[in-house]
Design goal:
It contains three helices and six strands; from the N terminus they run αβββαβββα. It is α+β, with helices and mostly antiparallel strands and 141 residues long. The protein has a single domain, classed as GAF domain (Beta-Lactamase), CATH 3.30.450. It has a six-stranded antiparallel sheet with strand order 3-2-1-6-5-4, sandwiched between helices. A hairpin with a 5-residue loop joins strand 1 and strand 2. It is globular. Bound molecules: methionine sulfoxide.
């Protein structure tokens, strides 16, 4: 995968664009599988810094998506027992896996301070965003 500075910058820009332009997106970031370890590592993001820069597979919403390969929409984070809190203002979360050549290599993670804001439209939109990101990651420019 292409992990150069330009790629990092493009993904950073995507995070900022999404956070600034979509009202119910309050923290937007990418996590990626960390080498051959069974853990995720935080990549580019927009929003408050988080302590959770490494997340073991299976832990929290992100860690669960790393193993399920499925979108995870959380209307109310308080109702989840396998959840890693980053900020007390967060009410809801959506995580959509990122596939490159059919392999789950990471995910986009979005936190919202609005309760139950995510719809099927967000899922389709974020799947599209991730397809574009997969293109960026596999292009050698
Ligand atoms: N809430 C996530 C952890 C990542 S922070 O939202 C940035 C989780 O439960 O996996």
């Amino acid at each position: 995968l292409n992990e150069n500075r330009q790629t990092h910058f493009k993904l950073q820009q995507i995070c900022e664009l999404l956070k600034e332009n979509i009202d119910h997106y309050d923290w937007v970031g990418f996590y990626f599988k960390n080498g051959d370890k069974d853990e995720l590592k935080l990549g580019p993001y927009a929003g408050e810094p988080t302590d959770h820069t490494i997340i073991p597979f299976g832990k929290g919403i992100c860690g669960q998506v790393a193993v399920s390969n499925q979108n995870f929409v959380v209307p109310d984070v308080q109702a989840q027992d396998n959840y890693i809190a980053c900020s007390i203002t967060v009410k809801a979360e959506i995580v959509v896996p990122l596939f490159v050549n059919g392999e789950n290599i990471g995910q986009i993670d979005i936190d919202s301070n609005t309760p139950d804001p995510f719809t099927a439209e967000d899922e389709r939109f974020l799947e599209f965003v991730n397809q574009q990101v997969a293109g960026i990651l596999t292009k050698t420019v």
